[in-house]
Amino acid sequence: MELALACDICIASENAKLGLTEAKIGSIPGSGGVQRLPRAISKTNAMLMLLTGDTVDAQEALRLGIVSKVVPFADLLPTAKEIAQRIAGNAPLAVKALKRLVNQGLDMPLAHALEMDKYMFGLLRDTEDRIEGRKAFQEKRKPRYKGR
User: Which of 14, 22, 60, 132 is catalytic?
Assistant: First the structure.
């Protein structure tokens, strides 16, 4: 569960069970779960899971926002690879910027995070990748990004 909470995208199989059960044995999660869970889901749902040590099934984890998607076990790896390929097909500078903006923006006031978005948009505006992306869109073809 703590590894799942540290991921940008989490796909679970239909038979998955997730929880932070340490309270049941007199301990607490030791790898970030205490702080990450209430940032991923509501405080009240996080407290319910943490204080009871109860687990949730994959569908409840999806409903709560702990996982991004639930698939049959046989589709788990192919689904993950397909999503990774879709991300890898996007402009690398934009993907890197998006990850940074989300991760840093969650720890700052909204107004400051919005200013960071504007700043990053300006940095990306004239990159070769953005120009290629717009050109490829107009020409109805797949873009060829170079990370520049």
Answer: 22
pLDDT tier at 92, thresholds 50, 70, 90:
very high
Considering only CA atoms, give the Rg of the chain: 19
Query: Is 14 a catalytic site residue?
Result: no
2 is catalytic: yes
pLDDT in tens, 132-143: 999 999 999 999
Tokens representing 123 are: 């940095």
| The pLDDT of residue 142 | 92
Tell how many helices (H) and how many strands (E) occur in the chain.
Answer: 8, 4
Q: How far is CA 105 from CA 65, 97, 117, 118, 141, in A?
A: 19, 11, 9, 12, 33
Assessment of whether the complete model's pTM goes beyond 0.85? no
What is d(CA 115, CA 62) in angstroms, rounded to the nearest whole number? 31
Sequence-ordered list of residues with C-beta below 8 angstroms from that of 12, at least 6 positions apart, any chain: 4, 18, 58, 61, 62, 67, 69, 70, 71, 76
**Catalytic one among 2, 14, 60, 132?**
2
Q: Is 57 helix (H, G, I), strand (E, B) or coil?
A: strand
